[in-house]
Amino acid sequence: MGLSLIGPPAAASTRKQAVLGVTLILMLSTLAVIPPEGQAQPPFYAGKTIELLVTFAPGGGTDLDARFFASFFEKHTPGNPRVVVRNMAGGGGVTGANWYWNNAKNDGLMIIAASGSNKIPFILGVPQVQYDFRKWKLIKVNGVGGAVYVSPRTGIRKVEDLLKPQERLVYGSISPTSVDLTTLLAYEVLGMDVKAVFGFEGRGPVRLAFERGEISIDHQTTPAFSSQVGPMVREGKAVPIFSLGQLNERGQIVRDPGFPDLPTVYEAFQILHKNKPDGYIRYKAFRSILSAGFSFQKTFWVPEGTPEDAIRALREAVDRMQRDPAFQQQAKVVLEGYPVTRGDLAEATVLRSLNITLDVRQYILNLLRTKFNVVI
Amino acid sequence: MAEAIAAAAAIFLDPVRLGLMMLGICAGILVGILPGLGGIVAVSIMLPFIYKLDAMAALATMTGAVAVVHTSDTITSVLLGAPGSASSTPSALEGHPLARRGQAARALSAAYLASLIGGIIGAIGLTLSIPIARPLVLTFGSPELFMLCALGVSFAGGLLGKAPLKGIAAGLFGLLLGTVGPTPAVAELRFTFGQMFLADGFNVVIVALGLFGIAEMISILSRGGGISQRIDLGTGWAEGVRDVIRHRWLVVRGSLVGMWVGILPALGATAGSMMAYGQAVATAKDKENFGKGDIRGLIAAEASNNSVMAGDLIPTLLFSVPGSATAALMVGALLRYGILPGPRFVTDHLDLMYVIVWSFAFSSAVGAGLCFLLSPSLARLTRLPFSYIAPPVLLTMLLGAYQVSNAMGEIWLLLLLGLFGWGMKQTGWPRAPLLIGYVLALPMERYFWLTLNLYEGYTWLLRPWVVVFGVLLVAPFAWGFLRRRRDRAVPATSQTSAPQRRRLPTLVGVLFAVLFAGAVVEANRYQPAARLLPWAVAIPGLLVVLAQVFQESRGRATEADDDEADEDPAATDPLERKRRAGRAIAHLGGIVACAALISVLGFRAATALYMLAALLVVARMAPVKAVLYTAVAIGSLWFLGDNVLGLKWP
Fold this sequence. Notes:
The structure holds 2 protein chains of 2 kinds. Helix content of chain A is 44%, strand content 16%. Chain A is globular and about 70 Å long. By secondary structure, chain A is α/β, with parallel strands linked by helices. Chain A has 13 helices and 13 strands. Chain B is mainly alpha-helical. Chain B contains 26 helices and 2 strands. In chain B, β1 and β2 form a beta hairpin. The longest helix of chain B is centred in the first third of the chain and has 36 residues, at 104-139. The termini of chain B are far apart. In chain B, 60% of the residues are buried. Chains A and B meet through α2, α3, α6, α7 and α11 of A and α3, α6, α14 and α19 of B.
């Protein structure tokens, strides 16, 4: 390579550069022949390319999360593989996940970025779902949080007012089987009377409808909340009431670090109904959908049987990137400050939350059928 | 404000950033020219590079790429008749017939200039809109959006062509096509027949490429020879500039329509250019030439599809509601720099906002300039035998279709729609209303249901903008009705051609009838909310088509109503027609065989085989030349796809 860069001028310098080039090549070949001590073999991913499958179109939340992590996996996975993002949109994420289930080899060269929309159909037992998270190994997980806010016209100022609004609460939603199911279940847990209107194309347009006064209660996830709802709150056009809460490793709902001052659904239930929600089936349903749709929303997986070296390298990268100042700085905005957990530490919890009991599933399916006219 | 604009200019004029933006512009031009690839691919190519830059440079690079895609896609649309991206379909419709008459230079220069002005008006609009955009967007609720979509659909009324019944049926069929996939109001999938790749509905890229791109390729191939015998490169350029000057208000109007559609979430770039095109037709006094190479249609559409991208940035940056996937990718990139779009964006990052504005205006100008420079040599391509050009273009289209969801089904759908589009073209069924209906069906249905569910009773009908749109919607019909009453005294003009029976038109008509009837039956199974729109379009559609088929079978409505007859007298000769139909079927068979081979041999081997066969058999190239040409064409496609565009292979 060094030789090809030599330009026409000055023969002397040409010779000098040629000598330099040859020396360099010799040095490099020595390096190649004698491996450095302590590293008996090259890292698993040296010179390889990893495909990161996103089951949604470019530009969506899962895609942005995947692209963010892709660059840091390139930087921190031993061997510095290339990581390319591949989008396979369709069927609300089920198409791509099914494709991965049927086609991905366990060679560690294809990772699936699965989000809440892949998990909710799995939890509900949608017949089109072929994939099974229990046959995959978790690489990393990070979550988001969400909070519910209302319009001041409803007269609601705090949790205590939730059950007696001055006007009908209207909630805008994409569809009852999207991650919005989490919020719909939160309303059920608290016993609120909310009219849900479906057909919006995303949370952004729903927020516009709130600003226009077309709906009176809405939820937004953390980044949108601070940057979009925050200004409305300061102008007195929106009142935050409760957060959905975060699940901890033991499956308990705790305060969301994104909304330290807002009571969680768990606390709101206690305020409204003077007892704990734990025993109620609707609360169990809420908790499992919360885990899929929020707390453990963004996950990377590889198929079972992937070489241990590969899994170890990828999980190691998760640790290494979190020590990278560039990652820390960008994560504050991109991941909204929510922690990233290495796969082996969270796998059992995530799988447990995806595995719901028959009565809980029955409850959700029943609710979807009777209240929202959805038959699965 | 002036200070921020000046400060942004200094940032923007930094040579490194300018250089990077040029790189973005080049990527955008390349992606625009390749049929089926659009802004998303242009931005995705740049993403891995820009993360290594600062926020300003990253934004300038992405804006550069996005701003020129809809300038360079015109080249493909005008010269080949295949839309360079979905939103430049009207340019293919009006620009390509001009190229066939040897006026490629005129069409291209008019298009670039209109694009350039559209981009600059978009940039100015972006600057001016900052203080007023928020309240303006917030006055547009669901009822207004619904009425706007309805108005857009009514523009299709201007595109009906000589046989209004056929046009109405095509528009209704477009609306029906738009209902495939998820229902906005309820959880029900429509017309997917258990096919997962249909679960998100037809993609606009597939519909535009199939109906117009594939159909056009086949029709040119079946005619034989080159696209044009004549190329007036010299005087044509000046003529195009004069066209734009003559129709300056059309340019402004097109730009504003595009900008406004861009600002409103959910309509999309294709709806923007189709609506700009539709309004140009609707407001023209003489409509005869539309669809056959009217420069006005081209100018309006080109002005709009650049400004739509500028408009798109307003909801993206001010509300954090990206109007397109391209804009969403830009938001993702901004997040990496800790920049959150939203209400505070303008106050916190005014300099960034103006860097975007500058980049947009600058890139539009540079993009138009580069396209000007590229065009003379590209225009010469139109004299080559088309059978040389067609194979690589067709393969690029298949590849573009596959990028949509990485399913072979998309390629089959593309070819099916191609066959359908060709049939429509040959038998005088206008395709423009179909595309308008298709792009507006989903937003129209969505905002109709949201309006019904969010507003009490019919009070929404009295909202000011609803009234304005309502008047605009009804006025042309009322006007036409009044005029007809006035003109009734004058006897109708005599029939132009002697009645003659034709079999093929009836065939397409019968196919439409079957599809409409099938939709009526199939929709019967759905819940009422999912059934409403399919029935509302399929039942009248069926009646209209039956009326048309009845007329045809009686030998009426037989005016030679396809576009080809006007330019090419040979096309009316029945023997020649038959020969061409045979050739078209053979070409289609070849592509279908290629697609089938792809599933067996993989994309690379199959396409190489197809191209070689096409060159040897159809183009009758010398074997050595054919092998060399195939190697170069397929090789560069692989290289570009793998190393530059990051495409996925079937």
